[in-house]
Write a structure and sequence with these properties.
Strand content of chain A: 25-35%
Distance between the termini of chain B: 132 Å
Number of helices of chain A: 8
Radius of gyration of chain B: 36 Å
Largest sheet of chain A: 7 strands, mixed
Helix content of chain A: 25-40%
Shape of chain A: globular
Order of helices and strands of chain A: HEEHEHEEEEHEEEEEHEHHHEE
Radius of gyration of chain A: 24 Å
Strand order of the largest sheet of chain B: 1-2-3-4-9-8-7-6-5
Structural class of chain B: alpha+beta
Oligomer: heterodimer
Largest interface: A-B, 121 and 112 residues
Number of helices of chain B: 8
Structural class of chain A: alpha/beta
Strand content of chain B: 35-45%
Number of strands of chain A: 15
Amino acid sequence: MNRIIVKAILVSLLLLVFSMSQLVNVKAVKASGEAAAVFRSTGGLWWFEQSGWPNEDDVSLDVALRVHGLFPLSVYELCNYYNDGMVTKDIILTLIEDAADFDYATFFIFANGVNRTFYDVIYYVVGGIYGYPLYYIPVTHYQFYDTYDTPIIDFEIGEITRHQYEGSTIHFVFLWTCVQANEIGSYHYSYWIYYPYYFYQGSGAAGMPLAWTLRDYTQMSSDGYASPDSGSYCFIGFEGFGMPLSENISDSGGKNYGDFVKQFYYYTLREGYSINQALDKASQGVFEVERFNQTTLYSGYTRYLPGLGWWSGKMRVYGNGNNYLPH
Amino acid sequence: MRTLAKKFQVALVISVILMSPILQAPITYSAEWSAPEKALSFLRDVIGFDLTRYKITLISSAKENRSDLAGILEERGKYALESDESKIEVIYTFWNRCLVYCNLYLLKGSPFYVHLQPVNLLDAAKDILVRYQAHSGDLSIQTMRGMLDNVTEIKSINITSYNVKLIVSGGSLSARFEWIYTCNGIDFTRKRRSIHFENGYLIAFSDLWNFYRVGSDKVNVSMDEAVAIARNATKEMPLLYGKVGGEIVSVQPKVADSPVEAKLMVGIKEPLTLYPLWHVQLYFDRVYGNYYGVAVDIWADTGEICGIYGTGIMGYIPLSENQQQTQAPAQTPSEEPPPPQEPPPTQTPPQEENPTPSPPEQTPPPTETQTNNQTNLNLTPFIIASAIPITATIIIATTLYKRKRKH
């Protein structure tokens, strides 16, 4: 009899241990530490023949290497650098997914990007089941390209981050890419509209800042430099077209926009300045002005494109520019 | 003889004693000069902060010889001034022991000052300038003070006196006072002093006046000559290479006759030395890759070319004409959206552009804000894990109970 009781207890204990391991696994999804990733996509990258002119290929490589080298390895458990052929959509999306394993993740991406129209769809539902599309409602989405010209679209990123149950761990994103900061964005979810015979199929996260940080336009400051919010997220990108890193700043004595990026990361990561303070210090170093809001990056610029008219652009800081990068 | 020797020794000792402070003076100065301390004295003596009411922490400090500034020693650092009611962060920069930048970031409350602060920002700027002159001992500030005395209210205004242009902008809460060097109608903006207030508080101070010098203020090259030089320099454009779909293609850009833009600005020929510069922007006949044109910078005093570089935009502009027509409007940031209209039921947009082609879910999902904050915790492993030991325990207990009853 006693033997049976002992066996029963042992079996119970084994089962308990087994079940505990399952519980431990559930919690292990959330790990700790800091992660950083630097991407330099060469999709759509153009450069002049050896002419002695500033060269986007060389400058973007120099900037990406420098930025990656500034992340202190003593702080960043994971600090990955992807260049040229290594920059694929799969790798980018996988890293975004992996960011959930860290307390803090940050990305710097150099790429080409555009905005694009997708559609929310209203379906007519027949007999309670899927019906046919009735209306198409245009929604602007944003995408940038990997080295092989494969687009990485905001709703694809949003689909990954929205499953991070404690909120996105990607706290700072700097996209040196056209139009990716045109807006903060909002989610276009699937939901039933009130009428019993219609179904609204949303097109997902519309807006890169939202897609990365899970903060929509009601939750993030639209000017994180001049009026930062109190959140833990910050997104920097371009509204309209972005400047090439290699473009010379004529009155600066030979500096270019790549120098601005390098100095920005230097001051945030090596001298412990907040995002806004580092933007100011980089503005001093490159443009010789006191504050970032005195630069054309902040105030905006326009350029004439033959056959396409006048285009404008400016750098946008969304969220909280008073945040610090772990350093 | 011995007396004479003794007298000589005494005189020598006295001389050494008397000389010692003189000999020590530069050494003492050299050892005592500290950028962080000088920054604090600037905050106290010029800005007027009551530092006794703050807990002061030097967060970072660094030294660097700036190769782009002829090897100038830059010393910079960051302070945090904290009290229960107020928090300010200060970032200072010294060049060769002279303060060139001081940025202030008010993070909490209002600053504590030694003296009552004027309500009017114009008076506040005048006070700062008076104290700064006393602090730095720079007599050139007197001219700038005189110019500011002629300003009666804060509005957009330019006042020029000899080679100094005072530019005032802003209003009652935020204002900027800037003194820049001007000559022959060219503003050498890097050679300047400035005081900048925002929301009633000083946020930035700069003094680059004594560091930048004017190498030349002569414009010997006219605009037309500059354009001609630029055109001549870009007669033969180098090939432009691009990566399209992983493959490298090349094109030969062609510079168009028009439009053309020329702008007179100020460039840096040698470190810290300013010269007038023509910036000539030429455009291609169409967009090639990311490039729309080529810029040529020409020194306006000599006509010598300073630099040639392609000008472009980030983005993704397709090469072929067809693609330009179909995709470019979607990328145009300034493009006005079409007027809202209810699409007809028969409207069928390209199927591949619909990102969610799968049939819709049949359960109503949560609202947007709820979903943003919801925690998508997967409970399945937890339920399975809990169910196994509980079921096992029940089975064992039942078996034992049955056996006991049999006995």
